[in-house]
UniProtKB/TrEMBL annotation:
<dbReference type="GO" id="GO:0004222">
    <property type="term" value="F:metalloendopeptidase activity"/>
</dbReference>
<keyword id="KW-0812">Transmembrane</keyword>
<comment type="similarity">
    <text>Belongs to the peptidase M48 family.</text>
</comment>
<feature type="compositionally biased region" description="Gly residues">
    <location>
        <begin position="8"/>
        <end position="17"/>
    </location>
</feature>
<keyword id="KW-1003">Cell membrane</keyword>
<dbReference type="InterPro" id="IPR050083">
    <property type="entry name" value="HtpX_protease"/>
</dbReference>
<feature type="region of interest" description="Disordered">
    <location>
        <begin position="1"/>
        <end position="34"/>
    </location>
</feature>
<dbReference type="Pfam" id="PF01435">
    <property type="entry name" value="Peptidase_M48"/>
</dbReference>
<keyword id="KW-0482">Metalloprotease</keyword>
<protein>
    <submittedName>
        <fullName>Zn-dependent protease</fullName>
    </submittedName>
</protein>
<keyword id="KW-0862">Zinc</keyword>
<dbReference type="InterPro" id="IPR001915">
    <property type="entry name" value="Peptidase_M48"/>
</dbReference>
<keyword id="KW-1133">Transmembrane helix</keyword>
<dbReference type="GO" id="GO:0046872">
    <property type="term" value="F:metal ion binding"/>
</dbReference>
<keyword id="KW-0479">Metal-binding</keyword>
<keyword id="KW-0472">Membrane</keyword>
<keyword id="KW-0378">Hydrolase</keyword>
Amino acid sequence: MTDSTGRGPDGGAGGGEGRSDSTGSQGGNQPTRRRLTLTGISSRAWEHPADRGALVALRELRGFDEILRKFFGLFNERYFRMKYLGSAIRANGWQYSRVHGIYLEAAAALDFGEPADLPELYVSQTPFANAGAFGMDKPFIVVNSATVQMMDDDELRFVLGHELGHIRSGHAVYHTLLVWLVELVRGLNWIPLGALALRGIVAALMEWYRKAELSSDRAGLLAGQDPAAALRVHMKFAGGGDLSDIDTAAFLAQANEYDRANGDLRDSFIKLMLLEAATHPMPVARAAELRHWVETGEYRRILSGDYARREDDADASVSEEVKAAAKSYRDAFARSQDPLAGLLRRFGDGANVAGDWAKAGADKFRAWVAGDARRGEDPGGDDD
C-alpha cells in the first residue's frame, strides 16, 4: 500500500492501491486514519441505479450535453464564479488551510486527479449549513461557513466528497436542464396542456435528482470511508450541530417511522406531496438509504477493489443500466413499509409496476431529449 505521496509505509516506493492520510478529527486529537485511494474509479461505481441509468442514456446522446454547456455556460457559470470570487474566500494552502487539506484528501481517495487540476473551493459566509457544486465547463465548490464550523474533519470530508461526486457524475449539466424546465413550466401555466406535458418531465427530473443526491452521498462515504461520520452529517443537517443530546439508534428509528408513514395511508400521500417539488430526499431517508447501501455489501466490495473503472465508461450499456434502474425501484418498493406501497402490493404486482414505470419514464425522457438534441445540433459539425 502507498500513502498520498506514493511511498509505502516503510518510506519506500509502494505498489497497488494508494492511501491518503489525515488526522481523524478536528484538532488532531485522535489517531491518524488511513483511507484507500480508489484508483481509476468511475462515477458509475457509486451512482444510484436510477441516477446511473439516466446519466448513461443522456451521455450517449451525442452533442446534447455540449448544447447545454454552451447555452447556459456563457453567462450563468460566469455569473456565479464572479459572485463567489468577489464575496467568498477561496480555500487553498494560505486561506482555510484546514478545509483545503481535507478537500485534497477527499479528492485523493476518489482519484480525482492532480491537486492543481481540482475544482476551486470557496467558503461563503452563510449562517445555514450547506454546500454546493456549480458550473459545467469549469466547475467549482462552495461550502457555507456554518458547515465548516459545524462539521469535524471526518464529517467535512464526507460533505466535500459528496460535492466532488456531483462534479464527477456531471450532475450540474442535467440539474441546469431541470432548473430551466421548472421555469418554463411556470411560464406556461396559462397553457394547461403545454404545462401538463412538461410537468411529467419535470417530475421525472426531480425524482432523478433526488437519486443523484443519494449517489453523491455514496461518493462522500467513499471519500471519507467512515460510515459513522456520514451518519453524523445527516443528523447535523437534520437537527443542528450539537449531537450531545442526540441518539443514533433513535435517529434511525425515526427514519424507519418515516418510511412507515405512521401506518396511515393519509401520511403516505402527504409524503408524496412533500417530495413532489423537492430536489433532496429528507435527511432521515438519506441516512437510511446510505446505511442500506453499506449493509448490502456494495461499499465493502468497492473498498476491496471491485468497482467500475473510468476506462470502461464508453462501453456502458444503456439498456442494462435502465434495467438496473427498474430493478432498484422494484426492490425499494418491495422492502418499503409505507402503507401505500403495501396496499399496491396487496392489490396487484406493485413492485413490477414501479419498475416498469421507471423504465417507461426513462425511455420517454430519453426520447424527448434526443429530439431536442437533434433540433439543436449544428448541421455543419461540432464546434471546437
